[in-house]
From TrEMBL:
<feature type="domain" description="DUF1330">
    <location>
        <begin position="36"/>
        <end position="127"/>
    </location>
</feature>
<feature type="signal peptide">
    <location>
        <begin position="1"/>
        <end position="26"/>
    </location>
</feature>
<protein>
    <recommendedName>
        <fullName>DUF1330 domain-containing protein</fullName>
    </recommendedName>
</protein>
<dbReference type="InterPro" id="IPR011008">
    <property type="entry name" value="Dimeric_a/b-barrel"/>
</dbReference>
<keyword id="KW-0732">Signal</keyword>
<dbReference type="Pfam" id="PF07045">
    <property type="entry name" value="DUF1330"/>
</dbReference>
<dbReference type="InterPro" id="IPR010753">
    <property type="entry name" value="DUF1330"/>
</dbReference>
Length: 134
């Protein structure tokens, strides 16, 4: 088959563009990063008794890569029964890191302050942080 040089250049350019488009679309979306979230709903019953816990808790989870996502602030319940008091959410890179912090000697040392000075419901929830636009 005899194709004019201008047409051949156009066809080659079109094929390259189609291939490049296919490669871009074939790439996998960025993987969701596994995370774990320590979630605590609490009602403080003794503010003075809670102060040692509040003053020390962050220093216990920082070595495990924990970081506050939610600490205090108002809660607007949209459905069902909302928390009666406050809420804390601490993010960790994995469930294992969250559990290791919860089981650590440093955290176990201050936990009795929370138990004596508040009522709480505590969870570790595994989830993923999905990259934007996916």
């Amino acid at each position: 088959m005899n194709i004019a040089p201008d047409m051949r250049s156009w066809l080659v350019a079109a094929m390259i563009a189609m291939f490049a488009t296919a490669v871009v679309h074939a790439q996998e979306a960025p993987a969701a990063r596994p995370r774990a979230f320590y979630i605590s709903e609490f009602v403080v019953t003794d503010r003075e008794g809670m102060k040692p816990y509040s003053a020390q808790v962050e220093s216990t989870f920082l070595p495990f890569g924990g970081r506050y996502i939610v600490r205090g602030g108002s809660i607007d319940t949209l459905e069902g029964d909302g928390p009666k008091g406050g809420m804390v959410v601490i993010e960790f890179d994995s469930r294992e890191r969250a559990q290791a912090w919860y089981d650590s000697a440093a955290y176990r040392k201050i936990m009795p302050f929370r138990h004596r000075s508040a009522t709480s419901r505590v969870y570790i929830v595994e989830g993923a942080v999905i990259p934007p636009n996916h």
